[in-house]
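Fill in residues.
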């Protein structure tokens, strides 16, 4: 087991964003986190990366309790995420964006950043080489020197994944990676996430694109109003009455809004 979420609750003032949610993810799985808008999915990512601490509960990663430890230490331990809204450095090239992601793993300290030692030059060459390899993996070999803002939307999303991979995660958290993508871009994303899994990286994905979730994920957890509604294989989830009702309910709400 790579990640264990035990009885996590999170309150924001009077709002219970998560109530007593527990689940575990096995090493090498692609695990889906789904649920209607406001169900608590992003809050769960924020708990795992400790952007905010949970109100109660415990999170264990690779056998170690990580609840409450600093976000940068969580990255160092091997958890990395992308965000719902793209957070690239728009005027930096694709290559530079990925190299920045690799710096959390870089061994060179403050002193050696001032005085460029041979060791630091070697380190930079290593970061560069691994960034180029990651850009190839995500299908951006042609855009290495292009500023992030001049890449297409689908390319920017893939660049974000390359940047997250640069920190060499064991667990990659993807927050709605297919949002705003067309069908071809979504197909490319499917292939990319499968390639990430083939590298031995565990993936936890929040996604609203149900056909993608159903063909991509090994197991799925459904949240509704901050509570666990169901957990199982894509087939279990598709046939679960409570899940179908939760989704139909949210569609009706949207239509009447
Ligand atoms: N920082 C915050 N402060 C106050 N309330 C918050 C905060 N973050 C989330 N919430 C509330 O917690 C609940 C869960 O929100 P969350 O963003 O986790 O849902 P979600 O499932 O990711 O939704 P979506 O699919 O729309 O992104 C919502 O009621 C939201 O308004």
């Amino acid at each position: 087991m790579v990640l264990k979420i035990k009885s996590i609750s999170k309150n924001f003032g009077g709002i219970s964003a998560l109530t007593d949610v527990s689940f575990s993810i096995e090493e090498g799985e692609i695990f889906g986190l789904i649920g209607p808008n406001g169900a608590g999915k992003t809050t769960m990512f924020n708990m795992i990366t400790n952007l905010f601490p949970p109100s109660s509960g415990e999170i264990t990663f690779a056998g170690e309790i990580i609840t409450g430890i600093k976000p940068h230490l969580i990255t160092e331990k091997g958890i990395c995420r992308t965000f719902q809204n793209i957070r690239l450095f728009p005027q930096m090239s694709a290559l530079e964006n990925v190299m920045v992601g690799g710096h959390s793993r870089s061994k060179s300290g403050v002193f050696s950043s001032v005085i460029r030692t041979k060791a630091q030059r070697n380190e930079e060459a290593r970061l560069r080489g691994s960034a180029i390899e990651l850009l190839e993996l995500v299908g951006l070999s042609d855009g290495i020197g292009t500023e992030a803002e001049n890449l297409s939307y689908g390319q920017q999303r893939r660049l974000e994944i390359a940047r997250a991979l640069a920190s060499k995660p064991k667990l990659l958290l993807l927050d709605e990676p297919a949002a705003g993508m067309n069908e071809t871009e979504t197909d490319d994303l499917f292939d990319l996430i499968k390639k990430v899994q083939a590298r031995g990286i565990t993936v936890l994905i929040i996604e609203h694109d149900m056909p993608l979730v159903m063909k991509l994920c090994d197991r799925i957890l459904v949240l509704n109003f901050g509570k666990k509604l169901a957990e199982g294989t894509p087939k279990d989830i598709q046939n679960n009455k409570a899940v179908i009702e939760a989704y139909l309910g949210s569609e009706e709400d949207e239509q009447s809004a």
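The pocket of adenosine-5'-triphosphate is lined by residues 12, 15, 17, 35, 37-43 (CB under 6 Å).
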